[in-house]
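Bug report (template v2)

What were you trying to do?
Predict the complex of my protein with zinc ion.

What happened?
Run completed; filing so the output is reviewed.

Input:
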Amino acid sequence: MSPSMLDMASVREYLSKKLLCQVAMSEKRLALTFDDGPNPHNTPLLLEMLASKGIKATFFVVGRRVRRFRDLLKQTADAGHEIGNHCDHHVPLSFLPRAIISRELEVCGHLVEGVTGKRPRFMRPPMGWINDKVLEVARESGYDPVIGSIHPQDSRQPGLDTILRRVRRRIEPGAIIIMHDGGWRIGVDRSQTLAAVDIITDELLESGYRFQTLSELVDDTHQGKSTA
Ligand SMILES: [Zn+2]
């Protein structure tokens, strides 16, 4: 997803007709999601922070990282967080043939199930690359595709204040926040993300928000309808 595309109402409206972006509700509930892990440096710090605040999140993991850091995935799932499918190799699915898209999802899903005992319910297309083909294959493979509604571009390390500003201005009930605990390099620096999550979660808990896993956010609503 290019910078701040999700900040454009027209883009959110278009995407919300195609896949889950956020959940319509009035209660102060939202979901924190983290992509591209498991990461041996950042994921443990995040797990510790979330546990200290009693927060459950959703982690969209990459198959090739799961192969290397199985124990970390197990630890994440055992802590009560939801695990989503972020493909085996974090590739832009729109450019790939259906068979490869299907395989990317299948391999990652199989790895996750092998570690956690549970097949992921949601998939998030790497880098937000979607088209009708990607969404069709994802659904045929049994996944609910999801993007989110708040994308502060934390993976580009724009600075703590910028991340905070981008998140704060789009907070609302039913929001789905996209952040990153992993990255292309295993040694990737996510200190800005961690600092931002620490501040934002304190602020939101203080103002009465509850953090839920994606499944909880979606299932806990009578409306059960995704919208922007
Ligand atoms: Zn990603």
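What did the reviewer find?
Strands lie at 29-37, 58-61, 82-85, 122-123, 144-145, 176-180, 210-211. The longest strand covers residues 29-37.
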